[in-house]
């Protein structure tokens, strides 16, 4: 799967805390401490840079809007996507976020570049451990 799309499933439960434009690039901070703390150096967020940014729309079920400040202050948490091509439609706790862009780069909040595969591996490890603990509690 295209990593521009797959990353949104890996960032499950991440809260979008900052959205800002830098030229034609959308910069997005996603706070997801339980995954981020597994990647050195210590931190709590990822910074996604969406290059060749074309559009962002948020549909909360009542209204569609694209105001970056309003969206970033709404406490939106990422759930998942079923998209297979761009634009990517992301299910969130508050509605649907649709993004269209050409390329994505990801860094930690401390500036270290990270690959999709590295985040995916950390996410898998976290959920695997969580599953083991949950099963132990059921016994």
Task: Describe it.
Helix 1 (3-10) runs parallel beside helix 4 (116-138). Strand 1 and strand 2 form a beta hairpin. Helix content is 29%, strand content 37%. The protein is built from 4 helices and 10 strands. With 139 residues, the protein is an alpha+beta fold. It has one domain (3-138). The model has no long low-confidence stretch (mean pLDDT 95). The chain has helices at 3-10, 33-36, 68-72, 116-138; strands at 15-22, 25-31, 45-51, 55-59, 64-65, 78-81, 88-92, 95-100, 103-108, 113-114.
Strand percentage lies at 35-45%
What is the CA-atom radius of gyration, in angstroms? 15 Å
Number of helices: 4
**How much helicity do the residues have?**
25-40%
Q: Estimate nothing, just give the exact number of structural domains.
A: 1
Described by its quaternary structure, the protein is single chain
Outline type: globular
The major sheet is characterized as: 5 strands, antiparallel
What order do the helices and strands follow?
HEEHEEEHEEEEEH
Quick summary of this structure?
The protein is an alpha+beta fold. The protein contains four helices and ten strands, in the order αββαβββαβββββα.
Q: What attributes characterize this protein structure?
A:
139 residues; alpha+beta; 5-stranded antiparallel β-sheet
Give the topology, please.
Elements: H1 3-10, E1 15-22, E2 25-31, H2 33-36, E3 45-51, E4 55-59, E5 64-65, H3 68-72, E6 78-81, E7 88-92, E8 95-100, E9 103-108, E10 113-114, H4 116-138
Antiparallel strand pairs: 1-2, 2-3, 3-9, 4-5, 4-8, 6-7, 7-8, 9-10
Helix pairs in contact: 1-4
């Amino acid at each position: 799967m295209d990593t521009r799309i797959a990353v949104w499933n890996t960032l499950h439960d991440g809260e979008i805390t900052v959205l800002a434009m830098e030229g034609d690039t959308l910069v997005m901070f996603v706070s997801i401490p339980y995954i981020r703390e597994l990647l050195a150096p210590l931190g709590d967020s990822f910074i996604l840079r969406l290059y060749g940014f074309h559009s962002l729309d948020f549909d909360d079920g009542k209204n569609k809007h694209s105001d970056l400040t309003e969206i970033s202050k709404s406490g939106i948490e990422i759930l998942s996507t079923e998209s297979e091509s761009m634009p990517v439609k992301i299910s969130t706790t508050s509605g649907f976020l649709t993004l269209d862009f050409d390329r994505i780069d990801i860094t930690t909040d401390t500036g270290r570049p990270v690959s999709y595969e590295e985040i995916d591996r950390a996410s898998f490890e976290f959920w695997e451990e969580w599953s083991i603990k949950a099963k132990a509690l059921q016994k």
